[in-house]
Amino acid sequence: MKRIVKKHRLAIRWFHWVNFPLLAIMIWSGILIYWANDVYKLGWGNKTILKFFPQSFYDALHIPYKLALGMAMHFFFMWLFFVNGLLYVLYTFISGEWRYLLPNRHSFKEAWLVVLHDLHLRKQLPPQGKYNAAQRIVYSAIIVMGFGSIVTGLAIYKPTQFYWLCAICGGYEAARIEHFVLMIGYCLFFIIHVIQVILAGWNNFRAMVTGFDVVKDTPVLSEEIIDDKP
Amino acid sequence: MSKNMRKAKMKNRTVEQEIRRRTIISFSLFFALLLLGYFSWRWLNAQPDDNGVPKPFRTGYEMNESVFRNVFSGNHLAKTYSKDKAVKRVRVNGNLGLSDSFDYKHWKLKVVRKTGDTLYISLNELRTMPKTEVIFDFKCIEGWSQVTHWAGVRFSDFVKKYNLDPEATMKYVGLVTPDKGYYVGIDMPSMMHPQTILCYEMNGQLLPLNQGFPLRLIIPVKYGIKHLKRIGTLYFSNTPPPDYWAEQGYDYYSGL
Question: Quick one: closest CA in A to B18, which residue?
Answer without folding.
Answer: A4
